[in-house]
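Discussion board: Methods & Data

I've been asked by a reviewer to show the raw model output for two of the constructs in my manuscript, not just the figures. I'm not sure how much to include, so I'm pasting the format here to get opinions. Each protein appears as its amino acid sequence followed by a line of discrete structure tokens. Is this the kind of thing reviewers expect to see in a supplement, or should I convert it first? Here is construct A:
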Amino acid sequence: MSKGKSPSEFLRPLATHQLQSHLGRGLHTLGLLGWILQQTGPADVYVSTFSTSDAFLRGFFNLKKKDLVLKSVLLADLKASKKTYKLYKEMQQCFDTVYLAQNHSKVVLVQNDRWTVTVISSQNQTYGDRAECTLVTTSQEIFYEQYCGLRDIVDHDSLQLNGLFQRLADQNTRPLQSADSPAGDFRTVGY
């Protein structure tokens, strides 16, 4: 979040406004998520993004350490996998489950027994000084629609990252099959 800027400078409390938006600079997703969790209390958090950053992951980890994040899921883009590979251990420390898919959406869903909050934004989980558009709503209908879309991508069009690199390494280091095997000396590399 930009120095000195608080989401409360751009938005009103969740309990007083069901639908709010902001177009401009200075409202960053991590600061917004912290602001939301201060109002909702501990909650499940689902994040969908094209790209994430070390700074976002460190901040998200701090929210988890404060016990504000219960269950957490991250859906990131497969094309950003070079960057994802560098951050995958950090992602797995922060999120219970991490998925990769063809994904350009930027959505944050926050849910507990009392609240359903949806953030739809043009911003990735990175920092910059560009103007971004953000919509925040407590509408259960919008939350449900976004949750179903996210779940559909995860269930049908994604690859689970958790343990993927270790599974690939294990797969690629197993001994070659015997000469009598129909596979011969062929061994797949990668996925």
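Construct B, same format:
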Amino acid sequence: MRQVSCLLLLTLLLLTCGCGGGKPSPSKEEGVKEGVSAEHEPLVTDSFKYSLRSEHGTCDVFIDYPVSGPHEVVEALKSFVKSTLFEDGGESKSDSPEDLVRAYCADRQEHLAKTLEQMGIAQVSRANAPEEGIEIRKLCQTSRFVTFEVYRYSYITHGAHGEYSDYGVTFRLRDGHRFGNDLIERMDEALYAHILSGMREYFKVSSDEELQAICTIDLGEMPLPTFPPFLVRDGVRYHYSIYDICPFEMGDPVATIPYSVALPYMTKAGREMVENVPIP
């Protein structure tokens, strides 16, 4: 009887120890970064990819998808991924990442079939088949923000070259707010000069005259990129799209303004994302 009682007591103790459930709270050693409460669940993403080949061509997709984290952030990121994948916004699509990558490829295969029909092309060779794809990757995550990069490409057979776009989007981890042009408060000559410096560095030229020879626009009237700036590990990034300021063959130039330079030009909300927060 005494042995049975001891066994029951031991079982109860084991059950009590195992009833915490979920993940353990982060310790001080694990490092909760400044400005973020230990009660906040960290954002966790996982990677999903899929490829679909048919007589119309090949479609590929890769996404870093939220699997857990603060509800508002997870929902904002799910909506972002869906609206980026699908022309109709993807509101009717499943939240399952496996379903999303398959639905994307099926959707693009339909698009390729219609495009080839409109072009009067009944059949394409494997070597010259159309290709479409998209990558939505987590580029940078700190305790206050997460930035995703979207790379989309399309090659339709018999074309001179393919088309692609590459840009980033930053979200605030506190509430899922998606930043756009509200990162920068003002653009003046000093900040513009830093962007020009970034362009010279990208093209590996040393003077504005050499840069002007590359660009298709007047440097004195250089526009902002098609897509808004976003936050990366080492600063605020301006990523120009193909044709924005230079010919296709020169690519999509990037200028990253260090935070030490960019902070005075950022909005209050933008500064809160980076001040006193180490960028891993």
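Answer (T.O., handling editor elsewhere):
This is acceptable in a supplement if you add a one-line summary per construct. For B, something like: DSSP finds seven helices and eight strands in the chain.
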